[in-house]
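Appendix B, record 7
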Amino acid sequence: MDDHYLNFSNQQQEEPTMKRALIGMMILVLAVLSACSFSSEKPADSVELADANQPANIVVGGKPFTEQLILVEIMAQLLDAKTDHHISTKEGLGISHVLLQALKDDDIQVYADYTGTGYIHILQNELQPDDTPATVYEKVKKGYEEKYGLTWLKPMPFSNTFTLIIKKETAEKLKVKTFSDLVQHSRNMVLGTDDQFFKRGDGYKGMAEIYGFEFKGRKEMDNGIAYQALQDGQIDVLVGYATDGRIPGLNLITLEDDKQYFPPYFPAPILKQDFLAKYPEVGETLNLLADRLDQVTMAGLNAKVDNDKMKPKDVAKQFLESSGLLK
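Structure tokens (predicted):
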């Protein structure tokens, strides 16, 4: 009987002790789980915040001609000097469609394109009679944002429009100053330009229809050799860019697009909207170019590369220092 009482008494004493132990263990487990949950959320927030504050790897891309090579260097050097981001370049990547895809794929983070190219060649719009440089810019900016999630920064104040280029002596002999003046002579002339101009929505077909051009022949050639071909008489008329530094250097002249067939081609940096929201200082820095690069200045920079054989990198640095953007 005493043993039974002792066992019963011991059980009564042990049960509360076991219950307290179990409750204590449960509290401990809950505390550990709560701590784990807290610690797993906190580092995630910290990592996200750290990522937002980390310098980005920014690749500046561009097209394979002189002006674009210079613009790539100008943008890259400016970003390198005024931000903490890691800057590199991929110059000469290709035409607008190639650059657009590279930006969408995050192969590059910024490139500069021309408003007329984006408006007509990429978005497939038609220039309206009441369009101005400002309306074309607003339409192309809105179009890229809605269709691609990309945005255009402030445009630089020069238009690198297409133009018809001929020798000065030819212009004087034929007494031509405008595209319309040249029409009556086109049947005896050979036109030279790169193959893209014959494919573009704002290219040869529309120009020929608007003006009535019927050239004796057409030659596709790289822009790099086209100027020499014009000098050598292999072609009589060249489709080129209005800001090309070789025009004054080779004693050539540009004709006036008197029916305003070509849209305005003002260049502006293009970035992803979400990238710009995350790194607003990138946009603020590149927008510093909006009042610096006018038509005369850009043509002079192109001439330093094409005529004086300077490197685009050196020309860009000189411009940034002389304009007060770099010290």
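Remarks on this record: The two ends are 102 Å apart (CA to CA). The CA atoms of residues 59 and 109 lie 5 Å apart.
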